[in-house]
Specification:
The chain is mainly beta and 216 residues long. It is built from two helices and 13 strands, in the order H-E-E-E-E-E-E-E-E-E-E-E-E-E-H. The strands form three sheets. Strands 2, 3, 4, 7, 10 and 13 form a six-stranded antiparallel beta sheet that branches. A hairpin with a 2-residue loop joins strand 8 and strand 9.
Length: 216
């Protein structure tokens, strides 16, 4: 009986591992557009971080062509599994490196990063961007509340063009060692990165769009 209880406690308090079996899938999903052939999205596991969590990284690329003037988007999405471990409270490091190229360089774009555990959103961010193809990279360690048992996770990285023209193309390239969820080597945030904590609240507005899309 004692051995059984000890085993149960150890499992409940085990460090969280995302994609423990290496079988999670990342998908590139277009909205109001056609996804061009050759678009890819890959998920790979990271080593265990200082907080005891083994996270994942996402990378790939895709091009979507607008079918009309409805809001155009390209979403890289992971609907993932875990080992049922514990998420400790405290800083949770995130990092990213990607580029956005739009055939209309004056398009009013935004990039967005949503992280959920057990179906509950824990971090939303929405940042305005231009489609000139320049590299966008930085990192952030938002404070997250602890969760005793995490059974699933979702990562959605998506770029939105709210008012495209028909035939407009949007290309997103997420570089290797790119969007890291629980980054192993979290660097000191670049200037202006801490402002994303405020921008994360603005992300709740974009989240409304995202939820409507996923419910459609």
């Amino acid at each position: 009986m004692v051995a059984s209880l000890v085993g149960t406690t150890a499992t409940a308090n085990a460090g969280l591992i995302l994609d423990p079996n290496g079988t999670d899938v990342c998908s590139a999903i277009p909205t109001a557009g056609t996804l061009q052939a050759g678009s890819t999205c890959t998920v790979a596991q990271l080593t265990q971080g200082a907080n005891g969590v083994a996270g994942v990284k996402m990378f790939g690329s895709g091009t979507v062509t607008a079918l009309g003037t409805n809001s155009l988007a390209l979403d890289f999405s992971i609907q993932g599994s875990t080992n049922g471990g514990q998420l400790p409270s405290g800083a949770f490091p995130l990092s990213w490196k990607f580029s956005i190229a739009d055939s209309d360089v004056s398009a009013d774009l935004s990039w967005n990063l949503n992280l959920s555990f057990n179906g509950n959103l824990v971090f939303p961010a929405s940042v305005t961007a231009t489609g000139d193809g320049s590299t966008i990279s930085s990192n952030l360690s938002p404070p997250l509340a602890g969760i005793p048992t995490v059974t699933s996770y979702t990562v959605d990285f998506f770029v939105i063009d709210p008012s495209p023209t028909a035939g407009e193309t949007l290309t997103v390239t997420i570089f290797p060692n790119s969007i890291d969820i629980n980054s192993v080597a979290a660097a000191v945030p670049e200037p202006g990165t801490l402002a994303l904590l405020g921008i994360a609240l603005a992300g709740l507005i974009t989240l409304t769009w995202w939820r409507r899309r996923t419910a459609a």
